[in-house]
Structures are given as structure tokens and as C-alpha cells.
């Protein structure tokens, strides 16, 4: 395996030494391009009090190519599908090499706070969200309680 | 929307991403050692004879007499393409005697070789004209507390090019044969289909080019180190040089003086994209005045040709890309990585206090002078602007190529689709016939039977399509004739 680019080393160091509140990201021992991530559900969102696990992978062409991120914890959200794939512009066409792991994870946290049912990935959830927002949010809260429970410290 | 192919990419990425899957180091290790031996023996050979050097410097691209005499013109163009790719790869070699203001004309190698697809001639010219910062050798880190001597020592230890990943997984089982020979047809498995053979040919070519590229750079690295050693020996000797040593020094005048090394890196800064420390001045984005090193700048390019991404209505079934009009394919100019302004471009203010190398004084004679001139204003009108398209002038050709490729593919798909519909009724009749009938008989019986109405319809459809195409053809011919007529009155 090729040596790890300086950028990845520096980003990792910063993530560990100066973590973003509510977000953790730790590289895997076997592959330093593969991160285990947790994101706390934003306050006043249906995901509040939930801790969501994600996986993040930095492809060979990172930072010219966006990191690949996926939810491992089940989540009821119009822009996240059953397999945990995320529909987020900065992970696709709007990726820029000036963005970082840190900023991407913050964007995902922001996506939890403000779902966008008009550009959906999970069609059924999006329809539900448009037709009956309160009901959909209740379901999201229920899923958060059952799948994204905070582990006891 | 869940079934759109594009969205599945991400999942695919994870398949090879899981850490415990990348566990094939042991198998490639022995190959690596073997290859290392090969390389070092080759480098040794270069010192005693120029044979290898000849080979590496283009003799390998000479078509071998007697081979491919009967090759068609189409094969020639694919050979030409290969030669162009080799020439491109050769241009990416960092050469220690080609310097501008303390930097080089080719990248250090922060990004993979396959991703260096910019126009090397354009970029080299821009660097020589001081319109784009040269490719500096990066420092992994920089510490303000370093003394002058410490910094010079560190700069002295810098390599010409980053280390190579010698054994890419991609080329693991690809034979490369003897790199000294230009022909490698014997490596191709003749039992494969034509298409497979072509694919194998392309893969072997890429694997060979990758190794050759490494050898070219290593060759250059070797002479760089040798010259460096000579310099050091000279430096250790007395200052009043004898004539012979003087000429030796002249030969090595491409090497920076200590003053230059110090000036270069003392006031450098970190590129916000690769996080490496480079000599200043940087290129700056025209829109938001953010610094970017040249190595990162040449990576930023237009999006690959794609269909416009439109807002999708969740209640409508997604349209397949195959059904879209190839002319809709677009490719937007690159955006600024910092502020997302369209049509990314940079400006560059060359240093006024160290014009060395090509178009300047020999780097070894550079003496640091306190510079009093005020820092020039970046918004000066004469500052030239370089866009991402400037260094990839072929983007439009590429877009059109992709369009016509897609058109051909959809035409093929239509043809296959129609022929499948022709065959299908046979399949259903096969299921209906009794076991006693052999497949051949079955075919003939189904053929002799009165065809089903759908076949008639399809035949009609095909005839109509054929007529339409030939009419269109004729139309086009007429048009071009009349155009020619107007051209030649």
C-alpha cells in the first residue's frame, strides 16, 4: 500500500486532538483510510439523543474525490436510504478538495437537523415526510429510540 | 430513486474499502523484491553503458523492423496513441537541470501518475514564462524554529520525486515482458477472443508504461544524487577551484546555492489542499485570493461528461441514462475549490528577488539580497489568468468523443434489442415442442411455421428504420455535396 498522504495524517491528528463536538472519527488500525464515525443527533431534531454509527472511507484520489460515507445505524430520513447511503451534494457533485472529513461530517449532522424531502434518496420516507410531516417525525423519533440508543458510559 | 445506478457507486466503493479485505501484501512482496533487483541491475548497467539509457530515452518507441508491416491504418493510430502517451509520461519526469526560480517543470508526485492528465507542454511553458508557479519540492512539515543551517540541511536531503508505489494491485498479474523491446505481442494470450486480446494489450501497455515511467524517474534521480555528491566533494575542497573543477561546477550549475535553498523555504507556506509546505509565492485563486500549489492546481478540472443532474420527482420512475439524448451530455468548467465560483482560475506573481534557472541566472550563483521592492498588488491588470481549461485544451474533444461513443452504444443497444425480439418467439416455441424434436429440427419447424404477427411488425419496423436511415444518409450526402459546391465555385 502506498504511503499515506500528509493531508490524511494531518486531518486524522486534528480529528483526534481537537474533535468536533458531537462527532467522533477514528481510523481503523488495519487501514488508515477507513474511519469509524459516530454522530450525535442534533438537538430539537427527531434524532435528538440518538448516537448514529457511520463508516467513512477515503478513496485513493482523496482529496480530489469525495470521501465515501454511509450510515451503519438504521435511520428514518428522506435523504438516507435503507442501506445507509446518503444523498448529500457535498458528497457528490459539490465536493471540493478544500473540504475535509471534519466539514463533511458537520454537513451530515446538519442534514439530520434539516431533511430535504424534495431531493430524496428513500422515496417512501420522502413521500411520508411530504404528506404527513408530524407522523414522519414521530417515526424518526421512534427509530432513533430503537436503533440509535446512546450506549451507557 | 433508490435504484438509479449512480447512487450505488458509493456502496461499490465500500466493497474494496473494508480494511480486512486488503490483505494481499504477502503475495506481492516477492514480486516487489524481484522487481527491485531488476531495477537496480538496470541502473547499474546504465553507469557502464549507455545502452539502457538509449532504450529509456526513446529507442523503445521505434517501431521494430519487420513487425506489423501489414498493419492497417487503424492499428497505426492506436500505436500513435501509445506513443503519445509515452511522450506524455516522459514529460512528467522531474529533471534536476530544468528549474525555474527554484522549482521544477514536472510534479513531485503527490498525486497518482494516472491522474496527471494535463497538457505538459502548456504547463511547462506557463512555468517558464512565470505565469504559473513551478512545481516545488514540498516539505512534509515546517518548523519556524529551524536555523538557517538546519533548513539547508533538510532541503539538501529532499528527493527529486516522491517514492513510487512499485506494485500496483491493478497490474499485479499483468506480464510486462522485456521493457527494452517495443513489441510485446508475445505476451498476449492468443486463445482469447479479439476483444479480450485488445483489452489485454491495453492493460499490458499501461503496466509497461507505469514501470517505464518509474525507471525514467529513477534514472533521473540517480544522476541527481551523483551530481549532488560531486557538488559536496567540490564544496569540501578549497574555494579557489582549479580549472577542471571549475568546468565541473559549471556542469552542476543547476543546483541551488545555499542562499537560494534558504530563501525558498524560509517564507513558504502550507497548501490548503494537500497540506504540504511549499516555497512561496503561491498561485492564488482569482475569485477569492486563496493560495493553491501548482501540483493541486493541475488536478482540478472539469467534471467528466455527464447528463445534467435535474431535480427528481419521487413519484415519477427514474429515466435510464441509456434513453437520454447523447447530445445532452455536458461538462461544466471546474469551480473554485474554496468559494465554488464557476470557471476556476488562478493568478501568479513571480518572485522578483530570485529569477533563477530557465530564463534567469544559474541557481548556484544566487546570492540573497535584502529585497526592498514593495509586494506587488495581486489585482494588477497585467497579471495573467490561468484557468483549468487552459491546461487541458482538449476538454471539448473529449466531450464530443464521449457523445459519439454514447450514440454508437445506444445504436448498438437498439440493434440488439430488436434482434432479441426477433429471436424471442423461437424461445417460446422451443418450450412448447415435444422432447423428441432436436434443436435443429425445432429451429426449422419454427421457421417454416407461419411467423407470429409480432415478427411481421418488427420486420416492418426494421424496414422502415432502414429506409429512414438511407434517406437521412442521402440527405446528408446531398448537403455535403452542395456545401462542397459552394466552397469550390
Automatic annotation (TrEMBL), chain A:
EC number: 2.3.2.23
Keywords, sorted A to Z: ATP-binding, Nucleotide-binding, Transferase, Ubl conjugation pathway
Enzyme class at the top of the EC tree: transferase
Pfam families (alphabetical): UQ_con (PF00179)
InterPro entries: UBC, UBQ-conjugating_AS, UBQ-conjugating_enzyme/RWD
Gene3D superfamilies attached to this UniProt entry: Ubiquitin Conjugating Enzyme
Transmembrane segments: none
A GO molecular-function descriptor: ATP binding
Active site: 87 (glycyl thioester intermediate)
Residue span, UBC core domain: 3-149
Family note: Belongs to the ubiquitin-conjugating enzyme family.
The name this protein goes by in its record: E2 ubiquitin-conjugating enzyme
Taxonomic source organism: Saccharomyces kudriavzevii (strain ATCC MYA-4449 / AS 2.2408 / CBS 8840 / NBRC 1802 / NCYC 2889)
TrEMBL record, chain B:
Protein known as: SIP5-like protein
InterPro entries attached to this UniProt entry: Sip5/DA2
Coiled coil: none
Gene Ontology CC annotations of this record: cytoplasm
CDD domains: SIP5-like (cd24139)
UniProt family annotation: Belongs to the SIP5 family.
Species whose genome carries this gene: Saccharomyces kudriavzevii (strain ATCC MYA-4449 / AS 2.2408 / CBS 8840 / NBRC 1802 / NCYC 2889) (Yeast)
Lineage of producing organism: Eukaryota, Fungi, Dikarya, Ascomycota, Saccharomycotina
Amino acid at each position: 500500500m502506498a504511503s499515506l498522504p500528509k493531508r490524511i495524517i494531518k486531518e486524522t491528528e486534528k480529528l483526534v486532538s481537537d474533535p468536533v463536538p458531537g462527532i467522533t472519527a477514528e481510523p481503523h488500525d488495519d487501514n488508515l483510510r477507513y474511519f469509524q464515525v459516530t454522530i450525535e443527533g442534533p438537538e430539537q431534531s427527531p434524532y435528538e439523543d440518538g448516537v448514529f454509527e457511520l463508516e467513512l472511507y477515503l478513496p485513493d484520489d482523496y482529496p480530489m474525490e469525495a470521501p465515501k460515507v454511509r450510515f451503519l445505524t438504521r435511520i428514518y430520513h428522506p435523504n438516507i436510504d435503507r442501506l445507509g447511503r446518503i444523498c448529500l451534494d457535498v458528497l457528490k457533485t459539490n465536493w471540493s478538495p478544500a473540504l475535509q472529513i471534519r466539514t463533511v461530517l458537520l454537513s451530515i449532522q446538519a442534514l439530520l437537523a434539516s431533511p430535504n424531502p424534495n431531493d430524496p434518496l428513500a422515496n417512501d420516507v420522502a413521500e411520508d415526510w411530504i404528506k404527513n410531516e408530524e407522523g414522519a417525525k414521530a417515526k424518526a423519533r421512534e427509530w432513533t429510540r430503537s436503533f440509535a440508543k446512546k450506549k451507557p458510559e | 430513486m433508490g435504484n438509479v445506478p449512480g447512487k450505488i457507486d458509493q456502496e461499490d466503493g465500500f466493497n474494496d474499502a473494508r480494511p480486512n479485505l486488503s490483505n494481499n501484501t504477502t503475495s506481492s512482496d516477492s514480486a516487489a523484491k524481484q522487481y527491485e533487483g531488476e531495477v537496480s541491475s538496470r541502473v547499474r548497467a546504465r553507469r557502464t553503458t549507455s545502452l539502457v539509457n538509449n532504450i529509456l530515452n526513446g529507442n523503445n518507441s521505434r517501431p521494430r523492423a519487420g513487425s506489423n508491416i501489414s498493419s492497417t491504418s487503424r492499428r497505426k493510430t492506436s500505436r500513435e496513441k501509445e506513443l503519445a502517451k509515452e511522450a506524455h509520461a516522459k514529460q512528467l519526469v522531474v529533471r534536476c537541470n530544468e528549474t525555474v526560480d527554484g522549482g521544477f517543470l514536472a510534479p513531485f508526485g503527490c498525486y497518482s501518475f494516472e491522474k496527471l492528465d494535463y497538457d505538459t507542454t502548456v504547463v511547462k511553458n506557463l512555468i517558464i514564462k512565470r505565469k504559473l508557479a513551478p512545481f516545488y519540492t514540498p516539505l512534509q512539515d515546517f518548523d519556524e524554529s529551524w536555523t538557517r543551517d538546519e533548513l539547508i540541511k533538510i532541503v539538501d536531503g529532499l528527493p527529486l520525486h516522491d517514492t513510487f508505489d512499485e506494485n500496483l494491485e491493478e497490474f499485479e498479474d499483468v506480464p510486462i515482458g522485456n521493457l527494452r523491446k517495443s513489441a510485446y505481442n508475445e505476451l498476449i494470450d492468443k486463445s482469447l477472443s479479439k476483444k479480450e486480446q485488445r483489452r489485454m494489450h491495453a492493460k499490458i501497455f499501461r503496466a509497461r508504461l507505469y514501470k517505464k515511467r518509474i525507471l525514467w524517474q529513477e534514472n533521473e534521480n540517480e544522476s541527481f544524487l551523483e551530481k549532488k555528491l560531486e557538488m559536496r566533494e567540490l564544496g569540501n575542497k578549497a574555494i579557489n577551484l582549479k580549472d577542471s573543477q571549475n568546468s565541473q561546477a559549471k556542469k552542476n550549475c543547476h543546483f541551488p546555492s545555499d542562499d537560494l535553498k534558504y530563501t525558498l523555504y524560509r517564507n513558504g507556506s502550507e497548501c490548503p489542499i494537500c497540506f504540504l509546505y511549499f516555497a512561496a509565492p503561491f498561485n492564488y485563486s482569482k475569485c477569492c485570493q486563496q493560495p493553491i500549489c501548482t501540483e493541486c492546481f493541475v488536478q482540478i478540472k472539469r467534471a467528466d461528461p455527464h447528463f445534467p443532474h435535474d431535480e427528481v420527482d419521487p413519484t415519477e420512475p427514474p429515466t435510464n441514462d441509456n434513453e437520454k439524448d447523447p447530445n445532452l451530455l455536458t461538462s461544466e468548467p471546474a469551480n473554485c475549490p474554496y468559494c465554488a465560483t464557476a470557471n476556476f482560475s488562478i493568478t501568479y506573481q513571480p518572485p522578483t528577488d530570485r529569477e533563477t534557472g530557465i530564463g534567469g541566472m544559474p541557481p548556484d550563483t544566487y546570492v540573497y539580497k535584502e529585497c526592498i521592492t514593495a509586494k506587488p498588488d495581486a489585482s494588477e491588470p497585467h497579471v495573467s489568468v490561468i484557468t483549468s481549461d487552459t491546461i487541458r485544451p482538449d476538454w471539448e474533444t473529449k466531450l464530443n468523443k464521449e457523445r459519439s461513443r454514447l450514440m454508437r452504444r445506444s445504436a448498438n443497444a437498439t440493434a440488439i434489442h430488436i434482434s432479441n425480439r426477433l429471436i424471442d418467439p423461437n424461445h417460446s416455441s422451443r418450450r412448447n415442442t415435444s422432447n423428441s424434436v432436436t434443436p435443429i429440427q425445432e429451429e426449422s419447424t419454427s421457421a417454416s411455421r407461419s411467423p407470429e404477427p409480432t415478427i411481421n411488425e418488427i420486420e416492418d419496423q426494421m424496414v422502415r428504420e432502414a429506409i429512414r436511415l438511407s434517406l437521412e444518409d442521402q440527405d446528408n450526402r446531398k448537403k455535403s455535396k452542395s456545401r462542397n459546391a459552394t466552397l469550390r465555385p
